[in-house]
Amino acid sequence: MPFYERGNVRIHYEETGSGFPLMVIPGGGLNSTIAGLANHPFDPMQEFRDEYRVIAADLRNANGGQSSGPLEIDRPWDAYTDDHIGLMDHLGHREFMVLGFCIGGPFIWNLLKRAPGRVAAAVLAQPSGFRPTMPDLFYQNNIKGWAPALVERRSDITMDMASAFLDKMYRRNADFVFTVTRDFVKSCRTPILILPDDVPAHPYAVALESAHLAPNAQVSIYPWKANPEQIQLALRHVRAFLKANRPASSAQQPLAAAAQ
């Protein structure tokens, strides 16, 4: 059961398969865990292990997970992105692809902003986004479904701290995909595949707007989760997209070698 540690941050991760690295970000909001992948429309750890080195981690401080660290109230999104980048550094992957569900959408955009050139391609499945008709949805979901259990097990965290963290995360930049601007998406040349959804936390309009703005974006079928056959069609698209954008093996270098 491996852990990546950096100071007072401890991230539980799992990996399977071999080949070019594919980071997976589970859905579930701030309760994103590896175990939660079993309840997703498909489990990338199982689907792609024959083709890629698939890596997933429990989100820092997720209920039901084994990752922990401080609550960085002034930089919530970037704190999580530090963990994602740090894990790939720890494993020696200068370049990788990423597939994220739900909250993985905003995380992927932040990765693309923070680590330009390192993400070879990205798949956003049922990505989260801001819905103007439900502007406080994410704060309310997490102040009820995430904060109380966290405060109960962590004596160093109070509900006031959790509220300030969520306020900074979801209310201060309540627009679009939370982590980046439309101008950034317009300028982002990374190949993107979006599998849209349309439930309150995963607005179809935001997914489509992202696809229209990003110059190298594709959109899979919609709806793609209605039945097992449609999920397989979407998976066929994901496989083809990843294969088309996977760098040649010679381009993958360990970080230490790349720095020399």
Please tell me about this protein's structure.
- The structure is a single chain.
- The protein has 260 residues and is α/β, with parallel strands linked by helices.
- The chain has one domain (3-247): 3-Layer(aba) Sandwich (Rossmann fold), CATH 3.40.50.1820.
- Helix content is 38%, strand content 16%.
- The protein contains ten helices and eight strands.
- Helix 2 (76-91) packs across helix 3 (104-114) and helix 4 (137-145) packs antiparallel against helix 6 (159-171).
- The longest helix is centred in the C-terminal third of the chain and has 18 residues, at 228-245.
Shape: globular
Strand content: 15-25%
CATH topology: Rossmann fold
Strand order of the largest sheet: 1-2-4-3-5-6-7-8
User: How confident is the prediction overall: mean pLDDT?
Assistant: 95
CATH superfamily: Alpha/Beta hydrolase fold, catalytic domain
Structure classification: alpha/beta
Q: What attributes does this structure have?
A:
260 residues, alpha/beta, globular, disordered C terminus, 38% helix, Rossmann fold, eight-stranded mixed beta sheet
